[in-house]
Design brief:
Order of helices and strands: EEEEEHEEEEEEEEE
Number of helices: 1
Helix content: under 10%
Number of strands: 14
Distance between the termini: 19 Å
Radius of gyration: 18 Å
Strand order of the largest sheet: 1-4-5-6-7-8-11-14
Shape: globular
Length: about 190
């Protein structure tokens, strides 16, 4: 079977992160407007390649003041680093629908190797609406990718202390990316 090429549909692809806040709860943030590509041969998934770009300027936590602080130089420094990227090309299949995808994640201009645990959710032929008309069907595939990173590895190091030696923001951050990919050859 030949290599298939897919693009991430930005309106149905998103990323979420969560970090401990004030030592007692998690605060979540999200990103939309994620663009990406996937190239995979279903017979040889270990040769797959994936690229994704996140618009970090669009961070949303539900609190405008916190969002502005996250965009500042204290955290994401979006004035100088408006996008984050991931390029993965090392794939290991761990189950029928489970994969480990390792690649280079760049945040704030700092690149580190990161491994995502990826769950393949399946494929379906669906409608494809453009200009009020259904131009489908189009083949879609779904994936969920998760990882945990240390934010300090990427230069995201702002913090403050709270009583009894606690901190405002945890070092470790959980990341979840939900991808809806569309087969390009159907375009």
């Amino acid at each position: 079977m030949a290599t298939t090429k897919w693009f991430f549909e930005p309106s149905h692809t998103g990323a979420e992160f969560r970090a401990r806040h004030m030592m007692v709860a998690y605060v979540r943030g999200q990103f939309k407007n994620i663009h990406g590509r996937l190239e995979v041969d279903p017979e040889e998934p270990e040769k797959a390649r994936v690229e994704a770009t996140i618009d970090a300027t669009g961070v949303y936590t539900g609190a405008p003041e916190r969002d502005a602080h996250l965009r500042s130089a204290d955290f994401f420094d979006v004035e100088h680093h408006p996008t984050w990227t991931f390029a993965g090309s090392r794939v290991r299949q761990v189950s029928a629908t489970g994969f480990e995808v390792t690649g280079d994640l760049t945040v704030r201009g700092v690149t580190r190797s990161v491994t995502f645990d990826v769950a393949y959710l399946g494929q379906w032929d669906t409608p494809w609406w453009e200009g009020g008309r259904n131009l489908g069907p189009r083949r879609r595939a779904g994936f969920t990718a998760t990882t945990r990173i240390n934010r300090h590895d990427f230069g995201v190091s702002w913090n403050d202390v709270v009583d009894r030696g606690g901190v405002v923001v945890s070092d470790m951050v959980d990341v979840v990316v939900d991808v809806e990919a569309v087969l390009e050859s159907d375009a």
